[in-house]
Amino acid sequence: MSANDSHPMTISEKIFSRASGKEVKAGDFVLANIDLAMTHDITGPLAVDGFYEIMKGREEKKVWDPSKIVILFDHQVPADSLHAAKNHIMLREFAKEQNILNYDVYEGVCHQVVPEKGHVKPGDLVVGSDSHTCAYGSLGAFSTGVGSTDMAAVLASGKLWFRVPQTIRFEVEGKLPERVYSKDLILHLIGDVGVEGARYMAAEYAGSTVRSLSISERMTMSNMAIEMGGKAGIIEPDVVTEKYLQERIPGYKLDPYWASDGGADYLDVRHYDVSNLEPQLACPHNVDNVKPVSEVEGTKVDQVFVGSCTNGRFEDLEIVANMMGDEPVAEGVRLLIIPASRTEYMKALRAGYIEQFMEAGAIVESACCGPCMGGSFGLLGDGEVGLATSNRNFRGREGSAESFVYLGSPATAAAAALTGEITDPRKI
Ligand SMILES: CC(C)[C@H](C(=O)O)[C@@H](O)C(=O)O
Ligand code: SF4
């Protein structure tokens, strides 16, 4: 990159410049080198089939770099059907044969496990065959979801083409009120711009409110960038990121280069003040059908699901535990708690929260996607209403096409579990 033609860049432009070896700007088409590729039990088998298709006729059928690939089992674990068991066997064999790291059925949801184990750092270009791969933008990476065939190409070559996305920047100021969290904030942003508001763009979340968030809270926001159509949801790394990474990557030091330059070219900069933000809910059947809790209070719920890669971490479980105290789950309500990873589960276990949940009448399952995608256990039946801390509420997402899913924060989930209806968590 020559100093002469260098222009102020967004963090995405910087990452694609590094990954493609030439200075690029939004709109350019690039062939970029991938730093990490993630695949899982649902989309992995197709990617592996595609990989062998590409390798047909070659003597050596080896992936481009096994140390840059991670395979996880999380959507259908422990195997909930013979089909799932078959997929797991196939991927285990592939991982073994190719010497790829494979987190098996006990480890947790991909988007929690990958950053938790130190596989992502600022400036990285990451792809995963899952739409919520955008979650790792919380650590200053450009991270995005791809289909299984793209993943097959990455497994074979380590490269993928992209159009460098334009950036929409969300500048958020003000202190989040009590019992209002980053989940409420991201739902508010999605409600504001709509499900296509950031289509094929990099969303950047910035401002003092975002900087004050923990990594867990930031992950919630980056995770849901895809819910506004975003290609990525990036938060500039800072000392909070550095501390998180130092606990995972020995000797990691923050590099201030991985931030957008002053004067970078944004497609749009939007300003928000959250000082008076109410708890928010995405109402059936779209993630951008967002309403403040005051408009939907009193809606009866049959099931409350606390979990998923969006809000299934220790901090989320802690909010629920603190709000519930020693109160029982409301009569007629099923409270389903599924930590996002084994590590987060054990933190909650050691803190006494799991025992507290069980005493209250909750159902606690081992780390996995659970009913988030409606493919596994914990499904909603016809006419039932669920409140979930996850990220999607499309018709049938959590079970029956005749059920209704509201999305909210862990605090709003706890309030509903205690009262049996959608309730402002500030009233508990
Ligand atoms: C199974 C997978 C392809 C899917 C995704 O890409 O997001 C799932 O994780 C989801 O949340 O809907
Ligand atoms: S927890 Fe839900 S959103 Fe996250 S990867 Fe699993 S199914 Fe997808």
From TrEMBL:
Pathway: Amino-acid biosynthesis; L-leucine biosynthesis; L-leucine from 3-methyl-2-oxobutanoate: step 2/4. PROSITE patterns: ACONITASE_1, ACONITASE_2. It comes from the Archaea. It catalyses: (2R,3S)-3-isopropylmalate = (2S)-2-isopropylmalate. One of its GO terms (molecular function) is 3-isopropylmalate dehydratase activity. Its EC number is 4.2.1.33. The keyword tRNA processing does not apply. Pfam families: Aconitase. Keywords: 4Fe-4S, Amino-acid biosynthesis, Branched-chain amino acid biosynthesis, Iron, Iron-sulfur, Leucine biosynthesis, Lyase, Metal-binding. Transmembrane segments: none annotated. This is 3-isopropylmalate dehydratase large subunit. The lineage of its organism: Archaea, Methanobacteriati, Methanobacteriota, Stenosarchaea group, Methanomicrobia. The gene is leuC.
